[in-house]
Amino acid sequence: MNYASMFSNFLYADITKESTIFNFFKLVKHYISTHDSHLFCRILNVRKSEILSGHPELSTADLSKIFSKPFYKSLVGRPAYNLTKEYLIIEQVAFKLFSNWLEFWCSYLIYEVKDKYSTISNTGFRQKPKLPYNDEAYTSEVIPDIATEDRLFYTLHHDQPMKLRDAIYLINLELFVKDAKWYEVLCQTHLSRAETHLVVSTRTIEADFPIIVSTALIQGWDKRKQWLSYNEYFQSKKWRYCLPNDSRLVLNRSGILKAPLKTKYLSTKDFECDFQNKLQSTNKVCEILRLSVSGTIKQKMYYLYLSQKHLVEKVFSLGYDFCLTIIDQPFLLNYYSKLSNNAYFSSSYYTANNVNHITYKGFWNTRVLMEHLRSCDFIEYKNTVNSNNWNVSEKLYAQ
Question: What does the alpha-carbon distance between residue 237 and residue 359 come to, in Å, rounded to a whole number?
């Protein structure tokens, strides 16, 4: 097959037709399966290197910033080492249909996972499911490795049931990459199809399988090399250390450290290195990542409340005293700010991913947070964060 010629035809296709994107994706899928599975990462790495070479000030920026149009546009289709003729034409078509390479990559992956279930003889939801605002209607479980699960689940992002690993994969793509533009997730998609996850779901009469409303990735100390908290990007100089003194004392008195933390740190990385070196009870610490909530704005508000209640109970039962988090959800942070006894405390912050609010790295103090959440219902939770001032245009997600 002459892929170069076939891809070139899309350069002159009507981009207003939905079939144009669908047919382009279909050809890309065939090309990847028969020729080269490294297409996406290779173009990402080559173009990122070229952009940073011309704009070294972006070396600590996120991928969304690096691939913003002013920097990337001039490179589209330009010959470069390791980029074949087919690569360059695919890149040009992708830029014609999407704002940048990363948006195309995300959209393609969403198409790919949905297409995987397109031939299954299932009608999907019998009708739009009615999801209750009743805590008792929802259940949760921690699954040690979702890659081994064969059960089917529905999501609120597709009308066909999927295996759990594909359902969580789709949810993360839709919420964290497509909506939040957290393109770094594209380089770690394997974490969405494996590892330990919390799943919150419900059953309704409209669906034959459970409907997932919230998920979260839980990684113990043995997986710390995969922790986003200790990723180079999240330890750059742009992250400002902010651990309160009373929170430092909570960690010192917790019994998980073999020596007290220092009273002053020069940087976020300085603190985190000291914390790691002094941590003795490694089984008491984990990282919680990609806390997802799906649905309408109102549903997301409720599921954010509900998922925290389930998640903190589960991690506490697993023996974790503290959970590292990365959060840029104002509603969530506003709730934590009203709690007492260091139920949550931040250790560093950064205005990331081209958004107007701040992203925080911090700790759940699980026992204390669990006690707070046990003692409140959804109405009390909303009142705590003064929901009347809630801006419905905010994205509801927690990284």
Answer: 14
Residues 6 or more apart in contact with residue 234 via CB below 8 angstroms: 228, 326, 361
Q: Which of these, 42, 175, 7, 24, lies nearest to 98 by C-alpha position?
A: 24
Residue pair 141/149 in contact (Cβ under 8 Å)? The answer is: no
What's phi and psi for 190, nearest 5 deg? -60, -25
Q: What is the per-residue pLDDT for 124?
A: 67
- Closest of 378, 383, 392 to residue 136, by C-alpha: 378
Calculate what percentage of the chain has a pLDDT beyond 90: 75
pLDDT at site 247: 97
| Length of the chain as a residue count | 399
- The residue type at 208: D
Give the mean model confidence (pLDDT) for residues 34-63. 92
> Among 84, 314, 77, which residue's Cα sits nearest to residue 218?
314
Q: Give the confidence band of 267 by pLDDT, cuts at 50, 70, 90.
A: very high
Tokens of 56: 């070294």
Strands 344-350 and 359-365: antiparallel
Q: Which of 120-129, 342-351, 363-372 is predicted least confidently?
A: 120-129
The CA-CA-CA angle for residues 166, 154, 380, to 5°, reads: 110
Q: Which of 263, 268, 203, 206 is nearest to 234 (CA)?
A: 268
| Residue appearing with tokens 């490694």 | 282
Please enumerate in sequence order all residues whose Cβ is within 8 A of that of 97, keeping only pairs 6 or more positions apart, or say none. Answer: 10, 15, 20, 21, 24, 104
Is 138 exposed, middle or buried, given 0-12, 13-18 or 19+ CB atoms closer than 10 A? buried
* Three-state DSSP class for residue 127: coil
Determine the Cα–Cα distance for residues 83 and 46; give it in Å rounded to an integer.
Answer: 8
CB 290 within 8 A of CB 255: no
> Looking at the predicted structure, is the pLDDT value of residue 352 above 80?
no
Distance CA(278)–CA(202), nearest Å, equals 42
Distance of CA 145 to the CA centre of its chain: 18
| Mean pLDDT, range 225-248, rounded to an integer | 91
- Count the helices and strands in the chain (H runs, E runs): 14, 10
Whether 345 contacts 250, CB under 8 Å: yes
